[in-house]
Amino acid sequence: MTTSSPLGVHSEVGRLRTVLLHRPGNELRRLTPRNNDALLFDGIPWVDRAQDEHDAFAEALRSRGVEVLLLAELLAQTLALPDAREQAVALTTTDLRLGDQLRGWLRHYLTDLGPEQLAEVLVAGLRNDERDGPRTLVTALMAEDDFVIDPLPNLLFTRDSSVWIGDRPAVTSLAMPARQRETQLTELIYSFHPRFADASPIYGWDQEHVEGGDVLALAEGVLAIGVGERTTPAGVERLARTVFSLDLAHTVVAVPIDQERATMHLDTIATMVDVDAMVMYPNVAHRLSARIVRADGDDLVVGEPLHFLDAAAQAMGISELRLIDTGLDPVTAEREQWDDGNNTLALAPTVAVAYERNTETNARLEAAGIEVLAISGSELGSGRGGPRCMSCPIARDPL
Ligand SMILES: NC(=O)NCCC[C@H](N)C(=O)O
């Protein structure tokens, strides 16, 4: 691993140097038509193909000089450390569904695993019928295919389970039960892995809900934070206080978004592709409002609602935030928004990774002078997340 790039993210579009991805693994093989809704997937992905698509995504980033860190590798390296391991086992076995007997067995079982095996079980989960431990009242009453440890198929979307704000990683607090354990793993990595020794984590999985997909670094010291299905009003308030008190930001633009699956995070409707330009879903763009939030000592000063684009431009100190619409007509735009056409990952100003399937939106981006690196995501997209959702930038050059 190289340590050449200083860790930290001060914008959405500064040249990307280091990014955290998670190559989808056996946790995706747990999805069935019976559990995919609860596990937040809209279908059953073909796992081998999803892995190929993800490998191509990682390769596209590497080909542009980006260092790709893989979450499973960082996790296994972290779990080689005794304190991290102990914390991982303790947190995983607090689940009240287990009961004391099963919990006791599970503690021993997990403690005896090597770091790679432990990482695999924490991510892919453990089914009742995969255990060779004693039968307890709980395991007897559970179905054979119930999970003793739930799988984490949404770990693929590394954007949500942590977000770097300036030079500190924030461990988020995920709203949906299927995702809550993800942040115990990101917290372990940032707290114990030597790569992050100089960057202690802020926030925490036990605080008010905030998901990384709702947090956009509009400019140095300026964050837009969506408030909707995932991030709560209290989450924005807590995060704003935290980043202001640590001098990691001076302005938060709080943006209410519809509480619907199609718009689960702010980055499903808008992402930045240049220092002053966003690709945005036109069906909501013109009615999106926002409030500018700043600090006055320990108090938060909350502005009146403004149009989002005006609030963002004002907070960024620019005259106008340019808008590039999601493709063509309202119906095409709706289809391409659903397929994450708005969810681009900027590699530098005017260079962005996007799903190839969103041809109309990509054509508009190109017409606006944005270089689009198109990747395929037919299987990856079945979890409803695009290139931005599947990536957590760790180092970007300052603008
Ligand atoms: N930032 C994002 O929009 N992430 C996509 C998360 C998709 C995942 N299946 C979820 O529902 O949480």
TrEMBL record:
<dbReference type="GO" id="GO:0005737">
    <property type="term" value="C:cytoplasm"/>
</dbReference>
<dbReference type="GO" id="GO:0019546">
    <property type="term" value="P:L-arginine deiminase pathway"/>
</dbReference>
<dbReference type="InterPro" id="IPR003876">
    <property type="entry name" value="Arg_deiminase"/>
</dbReference>
<dbReference type="Pfam" id="PF02274">
    <property type="entry name" value="ADI"/>
</dbReference>
<keyword id="KW-0378">Hydrolase</keyword>
<protein>
    <recommendedName>
        <fullName>Arginine deiminase</fullName>
        <ecNumber>3.5.3.6</ecNumber>
    </recommendedName>
</protein>
<keyword id="KW-0963">Cytoplasm</keyword>
<keyword id="KW-0056">Arginine metabolism</keyword>
<feature type="active site" description="Amidino-cysteine intermediate">
    <location>
        <position position="389"/>
    </location>
</feature>
<comment type="similarity">
    <text>Belongs to the arginine deiminase family.</text>
</comment>
<dbReference type="GO" id="GO:0016990">
    <property type="term" value="F:arginine deiminase activity"/>
</dbReference>
<comment type="pathway">
    <text>Amino-acid degradation; L-arginine degradation via ADI pathway; carbamoyl phosphate from L-arginine: step 1/2.</text>
</comment>
